[in-house]
Amino acid sequence: MKLAVPQMEDPALNVASLIDMTFLLLVYFMATCSLNKSEGDLGIRLPGALAQAQTVDLPDEQIIEITETGRLFLNGREFDSAVSQDLPELYSTLTRYKMASEASHTEAMVTIAAHDLAKHQRVIDVMNCCAGAGIINVTFSASVE
Questions:
Q1: Which contacts qualify for 74-83: CB closer than 8 Å, 24 or more apart?
Q2: In terms of Cα–Cα distance, which of 39, 19, 23, 41 is closest to 31?
Q3: How confident is the model at residue 144 (pLDDT cuts 50, 70, 90)?
């Protein structure tokens, strides 16, 4: 005996009612939302840089001379000992120079003039000191004799 199996139709999804419901929800959320002032719109006064009372004349660049014995001279004045790798005096002076040049809206520039026989480690120590002070404009000059 042969049984007749009814053919099943593919189920269909009524998309029109889904679109209607989506638009109704969209209208509902738009109507019920409240417009609040975001945090970025609040009137907050941030501290700023103070204006200088008097102008300070700074040289265009600082020249650091490194002798063959490892002694350091910044614009003719000797800093730190010849064996010190940390260079605390030079670091504090370069940090003050960087802050003063930022206050006067100029770029801090340093030129390293190393003697031909100066150790490379000493030059690297000076470059690390400049990087620690935030000075990125460092150039090299010809040998000092």
A1: none
A2: 23
A3: very low
pTM higher than 0.70: no
Locate 18 and state its tokens: 């889904």
- State the DSSP string of 23-90: HHHHHHHHHH---PPPGGGS------PPPPSS-----S-EEEEE-TT--EEETTEEES-TT-SS-HHH
Between CA 64 and CA 122 the distance in angstroms is 12
- Rounded Cα distance between 5 and 52, Å, is 96
Name 49's Cβ contacts closer than 8 Å, sequence gap at least 6. 103
Tens of pLDDT, residues 47-81: 665 565 666 555 678 899 999 999 999 988 998 88
Q: What is the percent of the chain where pLDDT is above 70?
A: 81
Q: What is the pLDDT of residue 33?
A: 82
Residues 75/117, Cβ–Cβ less than 8 Å: no
As given in the structure block, the two tokens for residue 120 are 């490379």
Q: Domains in the chain, please, with CATH?
A: 62-140 (3.30.420.270)
